[in-house]
Give the backbone structure.
Amino acid sequence: MTSAGSKPVTSSTYYVLLALADADRHGVGIGDEVRRRTDGIVELGPGTLYATLSKMLDRGLIAQIDAPVEGDDPRRRYYSITEGGREALSYETHRLSVVLHAARSKGIAE
Amino acid sequence: MSEVVFRLALGLYPHRIRARFGAEMLDYMRANYERRRTWRDRVAYWRAFAADLVRALLATWADRDPRTVDLPMMSFFRDLVRAGRDFLRQPGFALPAAVTLVIGIGTTAAVFALLNAIVLAPLPYPDSDSLVVIFEQNSPTNRFNISTADFLGMEEMQRSLEAVAAFTVRSPVLAAPDQPQRVRAAVVTADFFDVLQTQPAQGRGFAPGEDREGASEVAVLSAALRDTHFGVGGEAVGQTIDLDGTLHTVVGVMDAAHRGPIEPAVDLWVALQLVEPGRRGPFFMRGLGRLKGGSDIEKARTDLADVSRRLYQRWPGFDENAMLTPYSLHEIVVGSAGGRLGLVFAAVLLVLIVAIANVVNLVLARSVARSGEFAVRAAVGASRWRLARLLLADGLVLASVGGAGGLVLAWIALKAFQAAEPGLPRLTDATIGFETGAFVAGLSAFAALIFAVAPLALTSGTALLRGLRAGGRGSVSSRATRRLRTALVAIEFALVLPLVVGGSLLTLSLLKLSQVDPGFEPRDVVAVSVSLPAAAYADPALSEIFWRAAATEMAELPGVVSVGISQGLPPDSPATHNNFDLVDRPVVAGTSQPVTPWVGAGDNFLDVLELRLVDGRWFDEALDGAGDENTPWNLVVTESWARRFYPDESAIGKQIYSGGDRSVEHNIVGVIGDVKYDGLAGDGQTLYFPVYRFWQRSMSLVVRTNGAPVGLADSLDSIVASLDANLPPADIETMDSRLGASISGQRLWTRMLVFFAASALLLTAVGLFGVLAHLVRQQTQEIGVRMALGADRLAIVRMVLSRGLLIAAGGMAVGLGLSFAASRTLESLLFGVGRNDPTALVVACAGLLAVAVAAAYLPARRASRTDPVRAINSA
């Protein structure tokens, strides 16, 4: 594991990593994906999302790329998960699954 | 709209985020906003948007994940919303609490607005605290105007004032194309505007020398008069106006804010025409001065007293005790209204305290009912801090509703008060503005804190557990709560008693005043007051022709019984006070001669006003008309005048000198019953002289009618107009309304205090009712047991009633002490009633006890109808 991936990530970062795991997306796309995947429970506000994106870019977890689709609004920049980002995602997912398993074994979460 | 908010919000982010993502963030905000279609969703969106903004800002500052930033404000906002919902669900608690607070805060805010505008606000002149008005004063209670000799002497000799001016107020007639108009004019010396340090907005003030006899007549207009006379914003400077038949050149126009220096406002300022004095008097002006920097009013007093002593040496023979005395201009403008408003403010603060105590009482009752909820919250981990926040949210919502409603009520009350024209200085300046808003905000915050602290103080940790053990039905330290609530109601009684005593004292005083015999019969008498302009009626013979013709023509109107002529009018307008000396016992040299109202009256005056002849005779022109003002006059005096100067003998045949003139001895030929000229509280000492020996330009015709002839006022007015078309409309008033207006000031203050006392009493009754009703509910089982053991209904009623009376009496015992202390402040307002008048005390105490019984009756009745079997079974 690289240094970027071995550090625990915050919940906002985790949601963004998860949203970018299967496709490159622009900001609105990330917000929509997070909302869809959490049944509307998690809603990232503009400040939260872009403060998080800013930090993730700095840490190299994601990268900015040009719009992959022809004719899309050129203002919309896309974000793509990096290798470091994938490592952080799988590390955090592993950590969460251990916690989830522990909770289930005590009959807390179904 | 949303776009504006988005851009503003974006502007708040740190540069590095804004520069990197600005366009994208706007895009993101828009996309998410447009998804929300319903009103509800959009509200939710803005709430989340605000929270996100604050979180993100804090997070970038603290370098944390925004989602982990805890926002206490947001959860407090949720508490506020929850508190509001709770109140809407419990109108039985929230409505009385809110109404009580709105009344308490609203009335307090309205009186504060008055106090602020009338007493606290500085006068509209630069450094207005250093302005003084200067009077002559020869005893602690007797101050009067200054003379030309005084003014010139001060100008020459004083050292404590930067500058000194003098002014007087007159009511000349302003000729206008459509209708002549009576205006209020300040007649002033040339440096008047310099002393005020306030110059006209257009044109100039008065130049040196323009206040001397023979100078050209000049005037400065108020903005209001300029607007009515020359059209709004019209060009007035350089034009001429006709005042009392004399042309005046307008040299300036004042700013709209300036209308003084004293109340009521003046329409224009005219330069005095001072004549070089030949004696110390006459006294017809007031001095106006500005204290030198570093000089205070005490230094000025000493300095002016010194000037007065030198003036006495220059003009010997006048009163040696008369001292030029400075008073602060603010004190003169505000006058007695200041102290009275302070008193009313104190009264309304008591109402507010009672209102807040009542709401605290309701809050405590509610917190007892919620002790189960608190216990559960505490049991699942809510800290005392958390409970405090819940209670604070409750208090804030309640106080905000009270404050907002109070502001609305204050606005309405203030408008209504102003519309009633109670004749207070600077009343039109009073508004519900920033100061009142801040005052209400402070009051509301204070109230909110009390509402939160009171139940919290009684919510100890052990009480919480007890509440839980009692199965959520138990008590937030219920005994302590009951004690506190009882004490609160007792305090309310203590505070209300002085208010009710004050209201009773003023009411008794007003009753006494309205029962005073004014000395004349006002019914069916109309007074027509006319002022003839000086220029056109310079010759007294012209005045005589006018008055005789007016009286004759009015007497011929249908429905008119007789017409009298008089210079002054009872009960408030003597027109002239004059000093005099008794020929057989003159005053000691260097002391003041006696002064009383000095009223000119004609033959019919006695009959028209149905005055009572006591001794000698009334005027008869055949006997009293020969001669002029320099030959002896025959005079009539009133009973108390005669009693004061000739207590042991008849006044008939006695002689007096008028003023300082010892050349003519006037004879007293008659004594009549007392007629009040210095207000109904005055002593009724009056001296009458025959009006036809000295025709004045300002007089009144008193017209006795047989009932109320239709259109009489119009007929009277048209007679005046037919005699001289250049006169403004005559001032026509019934003597009944003059008599009523005479005590309108007293009535105003009395009504205000009675209103506040009644409000406080009502609130206190509600408070007592609440406590007793709660008590009865809590003691249902005990009452049931008593009844099962044989107590009859009467015993139960007695138990609850005596409980209520005990609380009331306990409070009143303290209140009695407060009343004695507080009634001192009322002393100057009372007439014919001592400040510790036993009637007022007994009435007030009996009233309070009656209210206590009334408030206790319903709970007592409810207690007596307890069904013992059901009460005991419910245990």
